[in-house]
Amino acid sequence: MNQSSRIGLLAHEEAVRRDLDLLNLPARAWLPGRTELDVLVVGAGMNGIAAAGSLVLRGIRNIAMLDAAAPGQEGPWVTYAKMEMLRSPKTLPGPCFGVPSLTYRAYHEARFGTADWEALYKIPNQLWQDYLAWLQKVLELPVQHNARVERLLPEASMLRAELADGTSVLARRVVLATGRGGAGGLYWPRFADAALRPDLAEHTNIAIDFETLRGKRVAVIGAGPSALDNAAAAMEHGAASADVYVRRSVLPQVNKGRGSAHPGFHRAWGELDDADRWAFLVYGQDLQAPPPHETVFRVLRLGVKIHLGQPVLSARREGNEVVLDTPAGERRHDFLIIGTGFAVDLDRVPELAAFAPHIARWGDRYTPTADLARDDLAQFPYLGSGFELQPRDGAAPPELSRIHLMNYGAHASFGGIASDIPGVAVAGDRLADAITRHLFREDFAEIRSAVEAFDEPELEGTPFFVPRTP
Questions:
Q1: What is the pLDDT of residues 337-373, one digit of tens each?
Q2: Which residues are paired to 318 by β-bridges?
Q3: Distance CA 429, CA 436 (A)
Q4: How is domain 3-184+343-447 classified at the CATH fold level?
């Protein structure tokens, strides 16, 4: 960052402090002091910042944030995401907590100037990552990096988080802000031999060393944004060719997600009855979303070949080649990239191993008509109003509902607010409101005692002041 940008940001941070002061934020701490954490937030990326920032601004300060990544590597933006810029419009406010000076636009203008903002088309990934790191700093969020949570265990109405380094943390509530892969990991299709990994195949949502693909024939399965962006990245790094195999004969044409990106869906989706939510999920799933036009132009510019109506029937190893069986015949490549997205399968979430058999899924709570049955949607967790996990059976540990799943697993219950930029601020609000209610109710006896002990005489110095009797 050059000197001008640094000076601009320092001045802007003063404006942030003034805005927060004008709003009397963060609120004073109001919970009784405890040795254990009130809230542990797992993940310090976009969702983790939205969660922790919302809690701190409400005066819930006895929290910690843990992220397995190094500083500046949280989330997908500069690791496995291969788009040139964010897919969302630049005008979306992001995790700004209703404070204008905390928006990306305010940050960008402070760093680069208004003219640069006006000329900007969409936000480059690295700048978005820089912005999120800036939010961590300016909000003074308690982030600990290189700290991987391996599992959560119930412990006397609390949760113990065991870390990879052998230490543990005790908290009253835990928020899993673990991104799109945090509800079941990568989806690897059955037709592709898993033994192809890692030398002959990898998933789009793993950081691929594209320099190793220089001069190679690359195959990509899938027509989503990540699949096409990875094909483009391979060509940009000198791949001899990149062929994309697409099951559909025509690409989806309309991004319905953009049509539903408004406060109604963001704030009220979770209040719909199950039948309406389910039917709309099926509608969106069946239509799918097209890749952004910027991505399409990128792959066309680079000479990527897109094969429509050519599903891959099998993918196997033969010597040093990947052999794909397609309706058009056998195709041979040097490397395969799988662009099939993420799975939702709580049995595959390491942190939840002690709880997974007892977590309610949508399939446990709602039975659609036969024409709307979708096995993958039935695997989504059925969440409470504040992203809380819900019990599937009477054997569930009571601590289960103290876990809040603010990642892609919340999609069926609350739409895209826990996985996409347009609704992330709403997700933070919903989560913090729920946790505020829970903690206030649990601690009300002590909170009431604190009010009863409050003894600052308002009328001292006036004629109506009545001194206390000894």
A1: 999 999 999 999 999 999 999 999 999 999 999 999 9
A2: 321
A3: 10
A4: FAD/NAD(P)-binding domain (3.50.50)
